[in-house]
Every structure is written in C-alpha cells, then in structure tokens.
Design brief:
The chain is an alpha+beta fold. The protein contains three helices and two strands; from the N terminus they run E-H-E-H-H.
Length: 74
Amino acid sequence: MALHRLPIPAIPVTVITADAGQSATHPDEQKIWLTGSSHPVHLVLPGGHDIYDDSPEGVIDQIQKVVKLVRGDR
C-alpha cells in the first residue's frame, strides 16, 4: 500500500471494495484511502479482484458520479 501518499488531498474519492477475494475479508482496511477526501464514498460491489469485469455497471456508475462532482454538475 502506498501509505506514504496519505492523507488524500481534499478531492472526491470513491473506494470500491469487492465482496469476494482478499479485500472482502477486511473491507474496513480499504477505508483508509478516504482520509482527507472532500467527498468520501465507500461501496462494496459483487465480484472479486477484477471488479470492473464482475460489476461493470456499478464501477461505471461510481466513475460518472465522481466526474459529475468534479465538474460541478447536479
């Protein structure tokens, strides 16, 4: 983990954790990446290491939400 990069600057951050695999056993460990974020979101989606293949709609939805936040879209 790149802990030397913490805390995250005051930017929107979304952490997606898979409900299967290594991250699933300790989902709270993923929340460290939200420290300092101006809009922290933690979401658990069905899938494993390749969450973008397992839950593509969920990943796309979260990316679009962050882009809208950054653009100031409502």
